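Input.
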Amino acid sequence: MHEDLNELTRYLLGVAAVAAGAAAVLHRADARRGRLLPAGLVALSALYLGYLAVEMAAPLWERAARRDDAVRYYVITTRALKDLPLYWPWPDYGPQIGTPGYPYPLDRYPYPPFFVAFLAPLAKLPLVSYARAWYVVLYLAFFAYAACLARLATGRATLPRTLAAAGVLAAVPGAQLALMVANVEPVLWALFGAALAFPALRGAGFAASAMVKLYGGWALLLAAWHEGRPVVRSAALAVGAGFAAGFLVFGPVKFLGWFLDWVRYMVPVVGQGTFAFDPQFGGTNVSLSFSGLRVVRALGWEYRPGPLPQWARLYLTVMALGAPLLTAWLARRTEPVMRYALVTVAAVLFAPLCWATYLPLLLAPLAVVLHRYRTAASGEDPYGGAAPQQTS
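Output.
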């Protein structure tokens, strides 16, 4: 009963935080009231964040070493440090993995090996110390993404605007879940947001994101097409740093071997998605393309545990490639920053696997829309000051 009440409280406060954050951005009151109302709304957002800190962050800190993905990353990285294999064949994988009776094995690692090289120094710590250090990284990334959203929406990432954006971010489905399970996703939100909000970081941000989860590669290709050499140079530096870290920690032969093994053994696995459906906890594959297989299954297709048939794999591949390409074409007349954001959102939503923890990425194009609205409606900044600058 107590947990249900806490969930309801978080939900209601989250709704209030979303409303407060949106109102703080959109508010166009007269000069006399222009500072008071947004200040009150920002205070409400800060109150929501404070409540979450007490109800969620503090308990997570105490139980950091028992969080699902924190433990998974620790197990995988310590395996790598002990010269054990990172990837090996998984011929019986199918989208039954992640459903009741078919848990995802703790020692299976779906990402390219770059992330392991980053975690290696932390994984040399005792488990509790490592997990708490990882939580510090995640919360810093959470607020970094909030600051990027504030900049995208208003032109500047002041503390009040960042607090308002953080309140909205915390209320979006999947945001709290990512922190609860200690998933890497908040770091990827921050890289994505930085790439959109800061042109100098565009190539590096998208490339670093793609070195963990491939959806960042779509925006990187599009940005390289639009902006040319600066993006390519920045991306090359990030990719070079990733390989250099891997070579330094594990040696070039081993690291390159792992990278090739990931391509051979894990890319086909990720491309099959999962039927996972757990609305209570949030462990549901919300992929729009994979929903088509759910519909076909409901209409009578008898799926048996194991690899998907070829027609289903082909369908998922076409959707995963076609949706971002179509989005890039449909958005060809929009400003580049919006185009990058929309293509990334399409790549995420139509990939075979899309967890709820990916959904906070949808805030980025909304922030760009708010920026357009504010600059079109008034040259006045709702917190006072000059009109926001373009971010593209």
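The chain is about 65% helix and 0% strand.
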